[in-house]
Amino acid sequence: MSEIAPSIKPFRKEAQAMVALIEHRGITDPKLLEAFLHVPRHLFVPESLHDKAYGDYPLPIGYGQTISQPYIVALMTQTLALKPGDRVLEIGTGSGYQAAILAEMRVIVYTVEIVPELYASARALFSSLDYENVHFHLGDGHKGWHEYKPYDKIIVTAAPPTVPSTLVEQLADGGHMVIPVGPKGYHQVLLRLTKTGEQINRQELGGVAFVPLVKETH
User: Which of 6, 40, 43, 104 fits as disulfide partner to 35, beta carbons 3.0 to 4.6 Å?
Assistant: First the structure.
């Protein structure tokens, strides 16, 4: 197992147990497992939840949003089949944990958050971390981030009822999108979409439970 980051050392045992668990559940990418030992997950949750930060379950981060459980973060990231230098659009910055894991994978991250308070706190946190490959945008994730399209990969961390056509349009030919789809409180499914010309190939990865993807109301 890779050396743990200094900022995680107060939670060394918890972080190592977290990585051992997600590896046991089928996460095989060694660079991804290493990323989980480099990102201090406790900094991405409220201070009152630091002692629970490395458990394999979602945690509230305020404003009706959550940080996904480590296994789901790992599964979605591994499913993207990232290559160094990929341009990755993330919809739903939240506290920034998924963006930090992506940054550790040596990709260029464009992350969109609709909640101003979460956007501001994530940007503030990243200013204290050593990542130069993450770009932030405050806006409606249903609209993506048109300015920097197309994206090699797209990851959506909250569930719309259907796949937004705008995100499909912003995905590069040959690119992958990982997205949970379905209504709140009912069956949702995690999808891997692959774009080949005008065709979208769809693979179901199993049932999940995500908060809804918030949409602008005006």
Answer: 104
For 105-160, the pLDDT digits (tens) are 999 999 999 999 999 999 999 999 989 999 999 999 999 999 999 999 999 999 99
The values of phi and psi at residue 199, to 5°, are -95, 140
Q: CA–CA distance from 181 to each of 5, 30, 50 (Å)?
A: 34, 28, 30
* Active-site annotation holds for 128: no
User: Domain range for residue 165?
Assistant: 9-208
Instruction: List the helix and strand counts (H, then E) for the chain.
Output: 6, 9
Q: Is residue 27 part of a domain?
A: yes
What's the number of domains the chain is made of?
1
Task: Supply 210's token pair.
Answer: 């995500």
Residues 68, 127, 128, 165: which is the catalytic one?
68
Whole-structure pTM value: 0.95
Name which of 173, 157, 135, 147 is nearest 214 in CA terms: 157
